[in-house]
Amino acid sequence: MKLAERVSHLGTETAFAVSAEAAAYAAKGNKVYPFHIGDMNLPTPQNIQEAAIRAMRGGKTGYCPNWGIMPLREALAAEVSRTHGTSYTPENVAIQPGGKPVIEKFLLSLVNPGDEVLYPNPGFPIYESQIEFQGAKAVPYGFVPGKDNFLLDFEAIERSLTPRTRAIIFNNLHNPTGAVSPREEIEALAELCRKHDLYVLSDEAYWDVRYAGDSLSIASLPGMAERTVILYTFSKKFAMTGWRLGGAVGPKDVVAVIATLNVNEESCTNHFVQYAGVEALTGDQAAAAEILGILQERRDVAVDLLNSIPGVTCYSPTATFYLYPDVTGAMERVGAAGYDQFRLAALEKTGCSFCTRLHFGRALPGETRHYVRIAYSGIDTDQIREGLGLLKQWVES
Ligand SMILES: Cc1ncc(COP(=O)(O)O)c(C=O)c1O
């Protein structure tokens, strides 16, 4: 079969391949410590589950509006307005089957083939995949290590701007590095977007996975709400990754296009699941707070252990459920020639399964340090202790 030319530009999320590899290894009777995927091993809060069941039993099983049900659009507009200091209405909100579809629909709505789009690398791999699939040019920008946090490589962003640059994807709080942009950085980026008339996809998937301080959105800064589409998701805060519920929040004209894309692609987001979303946003928040407490404990245990491994240094990010340790020294110690050799040897010798820098984009010119991503959302504290303890023994031996 002769596939369409565009298919050759379609990427994927290679973390899923690492998952499959780990599952195959476990199926052979081996112990695996799953640090590879940003899924959660915590249940969705009971009150949210009950709301979906009630809605299903109450007959919410047919199609619903392509924009999403009004109670959810109202609740999400109110929530984002409250947290962002903006004044969104339901006309600014199109409900989606997850946060991920917002990436594709933002680009389809605002970017022409041949336009250039800046995106973070390392970063969520679907950005690069969708930009290139849609015939635009994906222009990466990286991060530089700061005192206690990764910072945007702002010079790289400025250097990469051309008259064809149309948009930038900004993922604060960041997967995979756990980076939290300080206010000055977000202000400088906003200034650059205004000056060069860029649209922004503000991927806020981890907005509420925050252990200290408050999240700040680029959409909250002067002149930015009118050029920014926010990717909102229920996946992480409410442990709802498999429910597939999210939203695009942004200027009315672009959100209207996104809603029309909804009709074209999936008609509407799952009807009864949207009632669970209303409960998540407006109901009891105790379980969500509990989830955050569990994640924070895991973070602390993992960061301490990683920093005790020779040749490993790791920040303690105030957000997300990812760590991005520099493992350059550890790789040298075990004699690993490259990322894949290190990852596979770690799996075989210790059972620890994780993604490396290369699962989040092609390495940028001049990159000399080596990093891996340790996700702690899908593994209990005692297993983190055991797994990273074995990793430590292996690197020390
Ligand atoms: C940075 C980022 N954006 C978006 C998503 C998409 O999440 P979902 O489609 O589950 O809402 C993820 C999921 O891991 C992510 O890490």
Structure in words:
By secondary structure, the chain is of the alpha/beta class. 41% of the residues lie in helices and 13% in strands. The protein contains 13 helices and 14 strands. It has helices spanning 15-27, 46-57, 70-84, 101-110, 126-133, 154-160, 183-195, 252-265, 271-282, 286-307, 328-334, 339-350, 381-396, and strands spanning 33-34, 93-96, 116-120, 137-141, 143-145, 150-152, 165-170, 199-203, 228-233, 246-249, 322-323, 352-353, 355-356, 372-375. The strands form four sheets. A seven-stranded mixed beta sheet has the order 2-10-9-8-7-3-4, sandwiched between helices. A three-stranded antiparallel beta sheet has the order 11-14-13, covered by helices on one side. A two-stranded parallel sheet has the order 1-12. Strand 3, helix 5 and strand 4 (137-141) form a beta-alpha-beta unit. Helix 2 runs antiparallel to helix 9 (271-282), helix 3 packs parallel to helix 9 and helix 4 crosses helix 8 (252-265). Pyridoxal-5'-phosphate is lined by residues 38, 98-100, 124, 171, 175, 203, 205, 233, 235, 241, 246.
Radius of gyration: 21 Å
What structural category arises from helix and sheet content?
Answer: alpha/beta
Distance between the amino and carboxyl termini: 52 Å
* Order of helix and strand elements from N to C terminus: HEHHEHEHEEEHEHEEEHHHEHHEEEH
Biggest sheet features: 7 strands, mixed
Shape: globular
Average per-residue pLDDT, rounded, comes to: 97
Q: Could you give the count of β-strands?
A: 14
**Sequence stretches where pLDDT stays below 50 over 5 or more residues:** none
Major sheet strand order: 2-10-9-8-7-3-4
- List the ligand species: pyridoxal-5'-phosphate
Helix content: 40-55%
Give the oligomeric state of the chains in this entry, treating copies of one chain as homo and distinct chains as hetero. single chain
Discrete helix count: 13
State which percent range the strand residues make up.
5-15%
